[in-house]
Amino acid sequence: MTPNPTILIVDDEPINLSVLTQVLSKNYRVRAGNSGERALQVAASEPTPDLILLDVMMPEMDGYSVLSRLMQDPVTQDIPVIFVTAMEAAEDEEKGLAMGAVDYITKPIMPAILLARVKAHITLKQARDYLHDKNAYLEAEVARRMEENQTIQNVSIRALAHLAEIRDPETGDHILRTQSYVNVLATRLQDHPRFSDTITEHFISLLTRSAPLHDIGKVGIPDHVLLKPGKLTKDEWVIMKTHAVLGAQAIEQSEKDVAQPVEFLSLAREIAHWHHERWDGSGYDSLAGDDIPLSARLMALADVFDALISNRVYKSAMSFDKARDIIVEGRGKHFDPDITDAFLESFDEFVSIAKKYQAGNANG
Question: What pTM, to 2 d.p., does this model score?
Fold first, then answer.
């Protein structure tokens, strides 16, 4: 059974407390306080009042001061307060309402009027509480579903990336490392004047999630090219380079299959298509400078660094220092100069990431 609403009555006169209790106790659970300090204590304790009837003229702490304290405390600030007082001047009523009281009843008390006012404000309080609880439930449900969708999205990304791993076993740890590298670079550049408008926390989140799809197009490369244990011929190299377009086309098709844009897919398509572009325009599609999407420029450096430090069927891994030197040599040629500088500042973090995911890596 739902308990009756609780009303706190506050008055320094025992007779007034007695009268109010007698009128209200048939329909409500009544708590009483005979001073401002006592009122604050009772209001903040269980059961929390659903409504407070507050006398204005009390010694030490008057009703206005009590109301002010109630409004400042997160525990009590939402409890509706009705002033009950012998003060009849309009300015007194206006002051109380301006401070946040919901109503103003003058003494002597008329039981029927008191009960009607109390019932009205209790009903409003219950309706407000219901809406608050409903909104809280809906917000929790939305958060739960968003988290669920995020989990499904992340699993889907990993499943797609796993396709590339199946075709090319060397890509597994490469995916984990490059995902971490681009996160480090983007975070380092977040406050850089060139990038601060683009690299937000949201961008970093999308970038990190979409990075594993950068080589998804390799699923379309024939085994005799993809797994060849030696240098590719000119014709084979032409075939190998198509993995960038194949990956972008696959992701683009996925985008067409959904009713609304999916941000991380757009970023993943950029990365897959253009992570082999070079700052000087000598890459796969001859894009140069800022025409290369930022996401792809970040992945370009991460991808090359990881390739340099990793064993491949056609080469041995380089040392971290040698790989760093090659990246530096590519500043302003292969790589965006500012991204290269961010790499140098983050070099120790790159090394830590490489050692953490060191399978297939000779530097461990």
Answer: 0.61
